[in-house]
Amino acid sequence: MSHFFRLIHNENIKIYKRMGTWVMIGILVLVVALVGIFTKFVLDPVSNADWKSQLTAENVQLTESLESAPMLDAQKRLLQDRIALNEYRIEHNLAPIERDSLWGYMVDATTFTGIAALFTIVIAAGMVASEFSWGTVKLLLIRPVSRTKVLLAKYASTLLFALLMLGLLFSTSFLFGMIFFGFSGAETPYLSYSNGRVVEQNMVTHIIELFGFRSIDLIMMVTLAFMISTVFRSSSLAIGISLFLMFTGPQIVQLLSQYDWVKYILFANTDLQQYTTGTPLVEGMTMTFSIVMLLIYFGLFAFLSLFIFNKRDVAA
Known about the structure:
By secondary structure, the chain is mainly alpha-helical. The chain has one domain. The protein contains twelve helices and two strands. The protein has a two-stranded antiparallel sheet. It is globular. The mean pLDDT is 87.
């Protein structure tokens, strides 16, 4: 076991000694800061003074859309849930979360997990492929540890980098949110519609859940990039395919959502938040089903990586 942790330590040294790694970390922090500055000083402040009238008018528009415009069942459920949430806010005097507030800013910052995923994919794509391109794979495999441990150490180091990026995103968004917007409205709850009723939730818990849900897609895409890098020994191919699927996969699944078989596609299952909001992509899908599908895909990616890496001849 000590050999395994030493391998992880060595892989982390390889990651963080590169200037590119620190550039990516700096870009992430800079993006979070710039969005805070833009929201605070450039965008017009959002006024919630007449929010009840605004929500009432919005419900009228949503109701008209439900009655007149043709739409998919999933879209109808989203509009119906939105109407129920608006009515609950009006009835219980709970104003919507403002964009230019700590919680509103942190919720917006969760969308930057895509940037964290992009940077982690770049790291994952080079973890194995670079060893072959630089010719260092022979030196790596003469150590008194199995190939399986070598590969697992590389994958574990990649996941640690992903966790670092998520932790950095959460901490910097909270820090800049405090600096720019203060701590006012900290008691405001998050509202969700689940199982036919509106549920109140602590905002900190909700934001942590958002990061958790978004990290699932990050982990699956990083695992895919790592697998492609291992199987094809090409970092550019791993980056290209992974980024293409990350940006187009959900849109393709959404377009095909009227077909029942689409629920077996990876990208139909990476967003587990669809179950907490009560609007699954395909009627009849459950969180258990999606978790099982994710485990199957994860197992497939892991098996291909381990099988190919253990069987590959590196003597030449």
